[in-house]
Design goal:
6 helices; mainly alpha
């Protein structure tokens, strides 16, 4: 007595093969010559697609049921993780030595410095009084007396 799961899989494989090699070209030709309808082609395509998906699902299921596959995937994953740990350790060793030799700051040091600069910038903006532009100009005017020409800013505006 044969396995019903295997029998169904073989039927699906035959259906997909027959649909894509015989039925679909025939339905497409009929539709191209105006004998068939687009609906026939669509139905045929879906029939073949469904059968091929069932075959692929059965293949993946049988693969996962195999003990050898599980053992292989497990050992490959373990080896990959070990290589990753080795690479991370080597990278950390090299970058630490490089950083100490050249004097490059760590990311934590750069972040702390950035935060400190931001705080100081905020404090300096709060401490600086907001003055009007005219007041600033009045503070600068005494420097006009040291210019090479003795004219003041008021006289320059009146001349213009």
């Amino acid at each position: 007595m044969s396995d019903p799961y295997f029998t169904k899989t073989m039927e699906d494989l035959f259906t997909a093969y027959k649909t894509f090699t015989v039925d679909l070209p025939l339905a497409g030709t009929r539709w191209a010559f105006g004998i068939g309808q687009e609906k026939d082609v669509t139905t045929t395509v879906w029939k073949g697609y469904d059968a091929s998906i069932r075959v692929a699902t059965a293949a993946v299921d049988s693969l996962y049921r195999t003990p050898l596959f599980g053992t292989t995937v497990s050992s490959v994953a373990n080896q990959m993780l070990r290589w990753q740990q080795l690479g991370t350790s080597a990278t950390n060793l090299m970058t630490t030595n490089l950083r100490q030799g050249i004097g490059i700051p760590t990311a934590a040091e750069v972040k702390a410095l950035t935060e400190r600069v931001t705080i100081l910038e905020a404090k300096s903006t709060e401490a600086t009084p907001k003055t009007a532009p005219r007041v600033t100009l009045n503070r600068i005017r005494p420097f006009d007396s040291h210019a090479s020409t003795p004219t003041s800013a008021v006289e320059e505006r009146a001349a213009a």
